[in-house]
């Protein structure tokens, strides 16, 4: 296997995955090379939506597919925005729109209670009807600031404060984020699964 499809149209995710997979001897193609319309995310969890997207991309490309579904879960909001993170402020909302809505939802919540976590679910299917997909998840704990800080990254990165680094995800150097993030940790788990189940290592 030397080609897989990445089931995402998110430019930020595509960039991060390209960096994270740069050492693998596998060519990663964006699903936009094969389809114009993304899958309808009807699942109720990150894992369900990742599987829906992976199967959709595999069916359209006739290639193995890897999908990521990720988002932010804020404890004080009962896990919101959760699976609706990308469209928290509505379909087509910008990162800035979503961040503004999140800050408004947390207005009056004390700093100690603004804990949150980024979650990432990865699903890999060898074919659209693969009955034994590879699935793994990872989380990254932090808290939500009162205002954005930093210009790197995307999504909620400017609001997500990483205690161990004393800065937001949007202030981290790329190499540091690619070591600490929920997506990086999920990819690390996925690589281990890949070696065990695909390569027999």
Automatic annotation (TrEMBL):
Q: Which family does it belong to?
A: Belongs to the HAM1 NTPase family.
Annotated residues that bind substrate are located at: 8-13, 70, 154-157, 177, 182-183
Give the keywords, sorted.
Answer: Hydrolase, Magnesium, Metal-binding, Nucleotide metabolism, Nucleotide-binding
Which InterPro entries does this entry report, sorted A to Z?
dITP/XTP_pyrophosphatase, ITPase-like_fam, RdgB/HAM1
The record's section on Pfam families has:
Ham1p_like
Which HAMAP family does the entry link to?
Non_canon_purine_NTPase
Free-text comment on the cofactor: Binds 1 Mg(2+) ion per subunit.
Q: What is its EC number?
A: 3.6.1.66
Q: How does it assemble?
A: Homodimer.
| Function field | Pyrophosphatase that catalyzes the hydrolysis of nucleoside triphosphates to their monophosphate derivatives, with a high preference for the non-canonical purine nucleotides XTP (xanthosine triphosphate), dITP (deoxyinosine triphosphate) and ITP. Seems to function as a house-cleaning enzyme that removes non-canonical purine nucleotides from the nucleotide pool, thus preventing their incorporation into DNA/RNA and avoiding chromosomal lesions.
Gene Ontology MF terms in the entry: ITP diphosphatase activity
Cofactor(s) listed: Mg(2+)
Q: What is the top-level taxon of the source organism?
A: Bacteria
Q: What is the designated name of this protein?
A: dITP/XTP pyrophosphatase
Active-site residue list: 69
**Recorded name of the encoding gene:** rdgB
Reactions accelerated catalytically: ITP + H2O = IMP + diphosphate + H(+); XTP + H2O = XMP + diphosphate + H(+); dITP + H2O = dIMP + diphosphate + H(+)
Q: Which residues bind Mg(2+)?
A: 40, 69
Q: What class of enzyme is it?
A: hydrolase
């Amino acid at each position: 296997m030397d080609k897989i499809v990445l089931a995402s149209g998110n430019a930020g995710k595509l960039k991060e995955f390209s960096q994270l997979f740069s050492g693998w001897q596998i060519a990663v193609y964006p699903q936009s090379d094969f389809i114009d319309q993304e899958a309808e995310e009807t699942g109720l969890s990150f894992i369900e939506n990742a599987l829906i997207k992976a199967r959709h991309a595999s069916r359209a490309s006739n290639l193995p597919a890897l999908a990521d579904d990720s988002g932010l879960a804020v404890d004080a909001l009962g896990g919101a925005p959760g699976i609706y993170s990308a469209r928290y402020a509505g379909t087509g909302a910008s990162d800035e729109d979503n961040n503004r809505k999140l800050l408004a939802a947390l207005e009056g919540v004390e700093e100690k209670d603004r804990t949150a976590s980024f979650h990432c679910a990865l699903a890999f299917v060898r074919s659209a009807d693969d009955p034994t997909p590879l699935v793994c998840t990872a989380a990254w704990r932090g808290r939500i600031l009162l205002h954005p800080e930093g210009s790197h990254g995307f999504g909620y990165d400017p609001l997500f404060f990483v205690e161990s680094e004393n800065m937001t995800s949007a202030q981290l150097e790329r190499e540091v984020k690619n070591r600490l993030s929920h997506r990086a940790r999920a990819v690390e788990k996925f690589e281990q699964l890949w070696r065990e189940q695909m390569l027999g290592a």
